[in-house]
Specification:
The complex is a heterodimer of chains A (about 140) and B (about 240).
Chain A lengths: L2 H24 L10 H13 L6 H22 L6 H26 L3 H29 L1
Chain B lengths: L11 H14 E7 L5 E6 L1 H6 L1 E3 L2 E3 L3 H22 L5 E5 L8 H12 L4 E5 L10 E2 L7 E9 L3 H12 L3 E10 L4 H6 L4 E6 L1 H4 L3 H10 L23
Helix pairs in contact in B: 3-4
The chains are: A mainly alpha (about 140), B alpha/beta (about 240).
Chain lengths: ~140, ~240
């Protein structure tokens, strides 16, 4: 399979998340919620691609990304109580994921496996750290 | 140890009802409990409530029986309050998330209606966000009774209780329809959770032969249902 499809999908999701972050930062009165639509679109694309014959590296990348997004949806997006602090943490998370997806797209295209693995670890770290932060906020409120 | 099963074994009508539920729900299967224990049978409450066609006909819990189950559960909750000299502020049901059975959630609505002075909760042990893991009218300091279907080692109850503890609640007690006597009672007691069940393996033991026949007619794999041969506490790693 042409690597450019995976690379373009990663880059597109990264672009969309960063554009969204810019819009939210530019208009603090807009009360716009950070949307996971770019992640969902990437998930839909990768869920289809993963069924095609792939090399083991590509299969691992697509499996990681779809599972990662599933976890974000299950824990952060479906039916989570609203609070300003949590929404801010979510906005920052999506922005950081956007930046990391950009880096991931570059490393993937250049076949830099070491760098790619580091970015996946970084994606995991930023997500779990934001969850910890949100839980701290929740416990302070209680 | 005090009596941990609450059913009235001298009431044939009640026992017939629990046995019918067991028949409707029992399946031979390759099933892994939440603790990771593999078992050759389990009780699928989704199917017992939705209805399940077998060689012996359609097994289905009817509306009258659902009503009776609701009354019995309500009665047993009240008995537990008397026995433990406390009041439950909340009755919690566990949303396991894609690992079913969810039939018990259907019963929740009925129990919630009959327990006007108590608020029902849904506890979602798989949620990473703590304030999304307990749904319902819960307040710090509340006494919570966890109500569930079948207990094997107690790990699901522990995970749900852990969410309630994190939010400042107490879980003095859990009530299951069936405790399979695989160490749950001992495991949960370490954390101050008293486990009771409506029925225990002994209460159903007279019907196992019957249940086995049902499974054989359905060409299901014969269950290994000798509860007594399991060791009681070795199935759950120590959490200390």
């Amino acid at each position: 399979m042409d690597k450019s499809i995976i690379q373009a999908t990663l880059k597109q999701a990264g672009d969309d998340l960063l554009d969204q972050a810019k819009k939210i930062a530019a208009d603090s009165e807009a009360q716009e919620l950070a949307s996971a639509r770019p992640l969902k679109e990437m998930h839909l694309k990768f869920s289809q691609l993963i069924q095609l014959p792939l090399n083991s590296d590509d299969r691992f990348l697509l499996f990681f990304m779809t599972t990662y997004i599933d976890d974000i949806f299950a824990n952060l997006l479906l039916d989570s109580p609203f609070s300003t602090e949590i929404e801010e943490a979510r906005e920052i998370l999506f922005k950081e994921i956007g930046e990391l997806l950009h880096r991931l797209a570059g490393a993937y295209l250049k076949n830099q496996q070491g760098e790619l693995f580091e970015i996946l670890k970084e994606l995991t770290r930023v997500y779990l750290e934001k969850i910890d932060r949100m839980n701290q906020v929740a416990m302070e409120v209680l | 140890m005090s009596k941990r099963t609450l059913c009235n074994t001298n009431d044939p009508k009640e026992m017939d009802m629990w046995i019918k539920i067991a028949k409707a729900a029992l399946k031979s299967s390759s099933y892994n409990a939440n603790s990771g224990i593999a078992t050759s049978f389990y009780f699928d409450f989704d199917e017992s409530i939705l209805g399940r066609r077998t060689a012996e006909g359609l097994f289905k819990v009817n509306a009258t029986e659902i009503d009776e189950i609701q009354k019995k559960i309500t009665k047993y909750i009240s008995e537990l309050e008397n026995k433990l000299s406390l009041t439950f502020d909340n009755i919690a049901f566990i949303d396991k998330g894609n690992v079913g059975p969810v039939g018990i959630i259907g019963l929740m609505a009925l129990v919630a209606i009959s327990l006007k002075d108590k608020n029902c909760l849904i506890v979602r042990p798989r949620k990473r966000l703590i304030n999304a893991s307990v749904k319902g009218n819960f307040k710090k300091g509340n006494n919570v009774l966890i109500l569930t279907d079948v207990v094997t080692s107690g790990s699901t109850i522990y995970q749900a209780a852990n969410k309630i503890w994190q939010l400042g609640g107490s879980v003095p007690c859990a009530l299951a329809w069936l405790d399979r006597n695989l160490g749950a009672s001992e495991n949960l007691a370490q954390y101050g959770v008293n486990l009771y069940s409506i029925v225990g393996p002994k209460d159903l033991s007279n019907t196992w032969t019957d249940l086995k026949k049902t499974l054989q007619k359905d060409k299901q794999k014969e269950c290994f249902i000798d509860f007594g041969s399991y060791s009681s506490t070795s199935v759950w790693p120590s959490l200390n």
